[in-house]
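Sequence only, no structure available. Ideas?
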Amino acid sequence: MNLYTALFFMPAAAAFLLAAPAAQAQSVLWASKVEEVSSAKAKGKEAFSPDKVLGEPNSQPLGQANDEAWTPGKDGSTEFIEVRFAKSLIAQQVTVIENVNPGAITKIELIDIKGERHVVYTNPNPGPLPVGFRTLQVKFKPEKYRTIGARVTMNASKVDGPNQVDAIGIANVVVQIVKQDFKNPVKTDVETVQMDSTLKNLGPNINSRYVDTHPVISPDGRTMFFARQFHPNNVGGSRDPQDIWYSKLTSGKNQTWSMAKNLGSPPNGPEDPNGLASVSANGQVALLTGVYVDGFMEPKGFSTSRRSPGGWSVPQKVEIDNFINRDPENIDGYLATSGKALLMAVDRPDGQGGQDIFVSFPKPLPVGEQPDPKRPTKWAKPISLGPTINTPGADFAPFLAADDKTLYFASNGHGGYGKSDIFYSKRLDDSWTKWSAPRNLGPVVNSPDFDAYYTLSAAGDNAYLVSARNGTDGSKDIFRIALAPAFKPEVVTLVQGKVLDAVTKKPIRAIIHYENLITGEEIGVTESSPIDGSYTIVLPAGVQYGYRAESPDYIAENASLDATASDKYSEQQQDLFMVPFKVGQKVRLNNIFFPQSKYVLQPSSFPELLRLVRILRDYPTVEILIGGHTDNQGDPVLNLKLSEDRVNEVKKYLVSKGIDPKRLSTQGFGGTQPIANNEQEETRRFNRRVEFTITKK
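Reply:
I predicted one. Tokens follow.
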């Protein structure tokens, strides 16, 4: 099978980190989700549980049974663990860390985005090895398939004592094992990142002789919000401590910005230090620092304001369970582009000391309650990002890149060049408590003075930050710097469009969900503009996505985007159509997939079908006709048969989920009802479709 295998053994005082050479588009991924396991000594996130295999290697000491590694619950001959990675890649290496009693692994399989398995390692004669632990590193020539998961099988009966797996990783490059002593860890606090250019002042359209601070760039890179202190044109005049201002990009080529304007009231007030922490992907929802009461801002948390035809709405308080900030004068926040995480820099008793960075997640809706764009999200109790990020000093100004993994923040507790420096770190798993060691962005970005509030667009080409050096008349100004390719966040695709009524083509205010079509995991959520129905979502590379809008009395026609092979930033246009929930209306199921000329459902179809199951359960009297269509290529008789077989497979799936077959009728139309030109494949593919018609409500 063209397999190249190497086994690496290291002394028990070392830890493992996979380090790829610094080059764009090279990736090393650690397992982020346990899909299936044969047995386990414990469940959940307890010691020895399967979840302990997630993230990079962390068992200490090595060569001894450790509660930070997975231990099978049995000594069976076919014990296994199957994991998924956060995205897919074309792998040429897989690494398994056996923490104690190595030698039991008999097979390693990689799982592609279609769910098919590929064997890359076999060992028919497992047995104990003369070391306490092992890094099993398997190298092979890259194939065409993209790896999204891995399955490791072991014969635990062949090696006495507990068998433990600490971590499973894949890479699209051949990488080295880096040795790091536990007792004397390598200091990375002031490890520097080299930038491509020097800092460039954004000039008088943005900066003034007053303090200009906390820039927030919209994901599309075309609008910048920032704060301006004690400016005569603040709502309260020169005595007004701080207002929110904004500017538009007028020339991307020359990075020219329009003359900044005050955002107005609301949200700005005449006596308050108003601040904008982040803005949604489409620029329609702003996260503000402070809670607004009777028009005045109190420094007790966060609020949101929504843009409408008449301007920005009166800010509404963000409800966060157990929100505490012992230093209300110092607070920062950032709402992830995905809408799935709210970062905050606050002083809490469960922190490391001073300002620390915490994260909160949306609370699930009560059973039976439908999403409503007019109803604010409620957030769970904040959890600390952990001691890798937080220090006894001040850790603040968090910014999470559009890839949802790369964190930039300011700190005076990690050491560095001045009063506060800017650092970056990578999230290693879905716990949000495991991060790579923070790296200082170096002397080009950081100075002996104050440097903070680092932000960048989804494209990741340019970063913006605040510095006290060389500011207008000695004030703090906003600067731009070009990022070195090796240190950009991961590649993303920015998708923009409008949510429209499929019949009238009028814009609709809706909530947009996007998910991984392979795993079914929801990746993010946003909302469309109440003004024109426009929306923007940002999709990290390596995943096949489905996305849909939700609004009362409508059914969504879902869309999809295959970003599995994306290797550079791109922008796409995609309108989302919503069909009124009425008898006679036809809804296209765009995310139903079959192999060419076959009628077997692809696994990426299941999220779409499960949503149809939920609709039919929520409306138990509804009946539908499922229609199948092909293009006009080939034998019309065979096309008709294929379309019939495909809709029957859809019906079979729905029935398997408990839907009464009497509510489901099917009909194949072959290629007799095209909706697009059949002359070119670019348009012909739209004719190959499954749709349903509401026949009874």
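Residues 28 and 493 are 20 Å apart (CA to CA).
Hope that gets you unstuck.
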